[in-house]
Write a structure and sequence with these properties.
The protein is α/β, with parallel strands linked by helices and 489 residues long. The chain has helices spanning 14-25, 58-67, 88-99, 143-151, 161-172, 193-196, 206-222, 258-266, 287-297, 313-321, 344-355, 389-392, 407-413, 422-431, 459-487, and strands at residues 5-10, 30-37, 48-51, 72-76, 82-84, 103-112, 115-119, 138-142, 175-186, 245-251, 274-280, 301-304, 329-332, 338-339, 359-367, 373-379, 403-406, 436-447.
Length: 489
Amino acid sequence: MTNKVTCFVPMGEWEDTQRTVESLKAEEACGNVYILANKEQEIPEGTRLLKFTGMNSSESIKLIAECCDEGYALLYTKEQELQLGEYGLERFIQVMDSTASGMVYADYFAMKEGTLIPNPVIDYQDGSLRDDFNFGAVLFFESAIFRQAVENIDAAYEYAGLYALRLSVSRISRLYRIPEFLYTEVELDVRKSGEKMFDYVDPKNRKVQIEMEEACNEHLKKVNGYLIPEFTEVKFNEGSFEYEASVIIPVRNRKKTIGDAIASVLKQITDFKFNLIIVDNHSTDGTTEIIKEYAAKDDRIVHVVPGRNDLGIGGCWNQAVMHPQCGKFAIQLDSDDLYIDEQVITNIVKAFYEQQCAMVVGTYQMVNFNLDEIPPGIIDHKEWTPDNGRNNALRINGLGAPRAFYTPVLRTIKVPNVSYGEDYALGLAISRNYQIGRIYDPLYLCRRWDDNSDASLDVNKMNAHNTYKDRIRTMELWARQQYNQQKEG
């Protein structure tokens, strides 16, 4: 085989690294193997030491590019043992050549606490812009594309080098997933999905997030998807509304929490009229009876039972927003959660007028079922800025909560009839034209408990969720590219 694979492996525990090298060298296609380390040290026989500053720095990526021989490059991103499947390297090469891709990646097996678990990944698309996209730990490149992509990275990054690399590759070639389990990697993070989903908003990751935002901005500019800070003015004079605000709660089978949610709305203090629209999506566990009891005592409650049975959370939102009693501003509250004090509705409505926005996103506090704070505590999404929030929104996986909307805009755009990502899709669509306002003081308590819909998802469900959000990002990116093309004439 003329064109061999140059392999790059980070130095971990000696035995892990040794076994990884043995697995690679067992294949005829394996060429030079470089051990990535931040200091001089002993390395496995038959390998070369490449001193670098860390897997995610652009300086390290450039050093790796300089060592890529003609042919192919394999970059392994973990320090734990890698075991290639039989003829794994050969299969990577076959698929790369037949698809003319710049980078390929594959499904893999994850070894978790001694158990081998199949871990399929998802297809890459234009909207796969989040920096935590899971490719697995084996990234396989056409060497010439790797070098060209590195040359096209303009900035120096300490944390976003690897992210900038794959964005750069995507601009000059395709990233292709092989739907076959080609290797096994060790997985040390055994937390549930609901415990991992807030990692990116942890304050200790702030410097990392700033760099990721910069890298994403550069990519959006190069693909003509970046939006400059110009917004459509909101005048708040459309339509006639009896109520200034409506809190909207879509619910199905939440008898343990719906009473607390309702009570937290009814105790709100305002100097304007508001109501509570509860869309009860055919509950069967006693939730309906609890809502009826509250509604019988307070005429501010509008209890809606849809006439159809095909509604997700988004469809329930549309039922509420299109209801004749919906107020000028529609404010979200999930049936698991509750407002933090009596001033939430007042503060949200005030933010609309002060910030002249079509949507407001607040801040929330993570708590357990007993309302005790749990990590990471306050989720404020401070990465959102008035000038660049809507660009950065294409990189992150959510905009925050609670969310509130100027009802005429929401009635025009409408909410996708799904039960995951509907709020994110709506936020992206609104932000294309309108400013989104922010409140950084906590507005509600977000309960995390075993009955949360995203508390513990298997890999297939997580993949379905991530694929949908990537689709949403792809649609929005394409829409923004068209928008910019039209502006340019």
